[in-house]
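Record 1 of the preview.
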Amino acid sequence: MPYPMVAIIGKQNVGKSTLLNRAVGKPLAIVEDFPGTTRDRIFATVTWHDVPFIMVDTAGILPEPETNLDQAILEQVEMAINDADLILFVVDVKSGITTTDREIADKLRRSRKPIILVVNKADNEKMEQDAAEFFQLGLGEPMPISAFHARGTGDLFDKIVASFPPELIEKTLAEEAEPLMKVAIAGRPGVGKSMLLNALVGEPRALVNDVPGTTRDSLDTIVDFNGENVLLIDTA
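->
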C-alpha cells in the first residue's frame, strides 16, 4: 500500500511506544518503565482527517551498540529511517538535551528526510515552556506534547498530515482498501518463528537471535503473494 511512512525515532524511554499507542487508540506496542522494551519495528495504520498513513515505532537508539543484538536493533532503526517519508524525532523534556539526543540529531540530519522534533512528557504549561531548550538541536521548532495524557497530540497529527506532499496524499486516497488474508505464525520461544517471517518477506523484518524471547511485540507485515495482499503476524 502506498501509504506515507512516518518513523518514530529517539533514544530509549522517551515514550515512542506510548505515542504509537495514542495514535492508534489502543495498546498495540508494549509499554514498560524500563528502557529497551521495544526491539523490532512495529507498524500501524493511522487515519487522521481521513488521511491514512503508516506509523512505525522503533527501538531506542543506543550511543554504542555493545552486543550483536544491539547491532541488529540499530539496523532495524536504520531501515525505518531509510523507508520513512517523515521522521518524528522524540525527545524527553524531563531529561533535557542529552549527548545521545545530539548524536541522533546529527544522524537524522544526514538522512535528509523531513523531521518533526517532538518533545514528549510535557505534562503541563511549565514543561511546554521548557521545550524551547530543544531549539539547540537545530531541527526547527520543538513541538511539546504529552503522549500519555494526549496533550498536544492532535496538533501533532495535524502537522504530520500537513507535511505530506499533495501528490502523496492523492495517491494514498486513490488506493482502495483490499480485504486481507491474515496468517499468524505461532509457537514456543526459540523455534524460528521470526526466521520464517523474514524468509517469507525476503528481508530482516524481525530480529533473529539465539536468545529465546527476542520477539516481544506482535509484528504485522503485509506481503504480496501472487498478486494478493497477505498479512503475516509474527508472535512472541
